[in-house]
Design brief:
CATH architecture of one domain: 3-Layer(bba) Sandwich
Shape: globular
Largest sheet: 9 strands, mixed
Helix content: 25-40%
Oligomer: single chain
Number of helices: 18
Low-confidence stretches: 262-299
Number of strands: 23
Structural class: alpha+beta
């Protein structure tokens, strides 16, 4: 029996695996794709480097630097250029800088005089007792006013969560923001009164998301999962889709389907299909008409099947393995089917976590064709502007080596919880329409010299109203089933920094459990 099986090789699973490996704990990772990293996906093509998943991380926990050092990546790690500290918001077709000081706030055209006065009333607004039943939108409107919600929070939430502030739970999605009111009575009071807490966090080498440094790597974020896996390449089983799990007398049983072929399966020519994690790529493969050949092999229970992918013979084996500890880091939407037989109520909780569709469009232009200064991180678009896309980051401004010096590279985000039907409304015209809008905002007349896109059918988990009921059930399931652990971006935060921060305590719980 294996000690630990980890489901999924996204950053949550790999980070936990790193700490277990460091502690000398044996484990196996089951990954449905042919590469590690989950939503982290770095590509290089035509002199461009682009990330189609997260583009960067925030160094909010010392665990990040510790792992980077463990992996020998200190010289590869890079921080965002200083120019990227400037953020823009689109208002009436004009890009306005987000004010970062009191003076900037008083001068900005983002808010009317009435809107500014409403923000200044915040210290005198009372507390709410709504707790988990209060949306971020309601919280912000009550404390800071409607203009602040529409012009700052709405685009911010679209950029971070691809979400809807009127649906996100403030206590679940932004617990630190909620805590400022709960503990100190307000946001301004909390910023003043929380100075001691921030000093204590500094001593622990922890940073708030507002002050943490933004990082990536010279070769993109994809180098991180690659380097982690290079420590234990034989412990990752690729092309293995988990079908179900069950409890045994000594631990856990996992049934998965292992797919193998003489040709690389994910390299087969496709057209409009999906891969694990619901990443739609311009490829397609079919596995049908599989013929059972039956049989078992020592150690694992196996059922073999054969089929063909575009003429290449493939083999499908249904394998059953057992373990003492099961750590599931699968996305919530994939977890539903895996845990359906074990606990239908648990599966339903997974199923109810909404993941909106998001398309990521990478474009590059000749730098000389851009009519405005590239002096910031990028821009976000409030919903009331009625644009087709959510916003864009200026990739080649934030980090170097994203394109040649004579080019400028951008990453545009489309869809999200507030505009999920944009894909059906525009169909094949979508990219052209988005690029047209983007060019007007950026004062560009020429066409892009490079473009590439990826569609994430189910992108970021939404910590919407009622999310706390899901999290409570996950905790209940873990407490009632020793040796079962859940981790991933649907718990404790969606960012890379959050996943890192949660990975070490999870690994420590597993190590402690194995000592019993």
């Amino acid at each position: 029996m294996k000690k630990v099986i980890i489901l999924g090789s996204g950053i949550s699973g790999l980070a936990a695996a790193h700490w277990l490996h460091k502690a000398g704990i044996d484990f196996t990772i089951l990954e449905s794709r042919s590469v590690p990293g989950g939503s982290i996906r770095t590509e290089r093509e035509g002199g461009y480097l682009f990330d189609f998943g997260p583009n960067s991380g925030l160094e909010t926990t010392p665990f990040i630097r510790e792992m980077v050092t463990d992996l020998g990546l200190d010289n590869e790690m890079i921080y965002a250029n200083e120019a990227s500290n400037k953020r823009y918001i689109l208002k009436n077709g004009e890009l306005l800088p987000l004010p970062m000081s009191v003076g900037g706030f008083l001068k900005t055209k983002l808010f009317s005089l009435r809107g500014k006065l409403r923000v200044l009333k915040e210290p005198f607004v009372g507390k709410s007792s709504d707790g988990y039943n209060q949306s971020l939108g309601e919280f912000v409107t009550r404390r800071l006013g409607k203009e602040f919600l529409e012009n700052v929070i709405d685009p911010f939430v679209s950029g971070v969560f691809a979400g809807d502030p009127m649906k996100l739970s403030v206590k679940s999605a932004f617990p630190k923001l909620y805590r400022l009111e709960e503990v100190y009575g307000g946001l301004v009071k909390g910023m003043i009164g929380g100075a001691k807490e921030r000093k204590a966090a500094k001593k622990r080498n922890e940073e708030s998301k507002q002050s943490a440094k933004m990082f990536s790597f010279r070769s993109g974020l994809g180098v991180l999962p690659e380097k982690i896996v290079s420590q234990f390449p034989d412990k990752v089983v690729y092309n293995s889709r988990v079908k179900k799990i069950s409890k045994t007398d000594g631990g856990w049983s996992v049934v998965y389907e292992k797919i193998s072929s003489h040709a690389e399966i994910n390299g087969a020519e496709k057209s409009g299909g999906e891969q694990a994690g619901d990443e739609r790529v311009s490829k397609r493969a079919e596995i049908n008409g599989a013929e059972k050949s039956g049989g078992e092999q020592a150690g694992d229970e196996r059922v073999s099947k054969r089929a063909e992918i575009d003429g290449a013979e493939i083999r499908r084996e249904e394998i059953t393995v057992e373990c003492s500890v099961l750590l599931s880091t699968l996305p919530a939407h994939d977890s539903a089917g895996v845990f359906e037989e074990f606990d239908p109520v648990l599966a339903q909780h997974f199923r109810e976590i909404y993941h909106p569709p998001v398309k990521v469009l990478f474009v590059a232009f000749n730098r000389s064709d851009i009519g405005r200064a590239l002096d910031g991180f990028g821009f976000l678009i409030p919903g009331k502007e009625k644009k087709i896309f959510l916003g864009a980051i200026w990739s080649s401004v934030i980090f170097e080596n994203r394109c040649g010096d004579d080019r400028a590279a951008f990453t545009i985000f489309i869809g999200g919880a507030k505009n999920p039907d944009v894909f059906s409304r525009y169909g094949d015209r979508l990219d052209e329409e988005v690029i047209s809008e983007f060019k007007k905002i950026m004062k560009i007349e020429k066409e892009p010299v490079f473009r590439k896109s990826v569609m994430w059918e189910r992108a970021i988990p939404q910590y919407n109203l009622g999310y706390n009921l899901h999290d409570e059930y996950f905790e209940k399931t873990e407490s009632e089933n020793p040796g079962l652990f859940f981790s991933g971006n649907y718990r404790g935060g969606i960012s890379i920094g959050d996943c890192f921060k949660n990975s070490k305590p999870t690994a420590e719980k597993i190590i402690e459990f194995l000592k019993k």
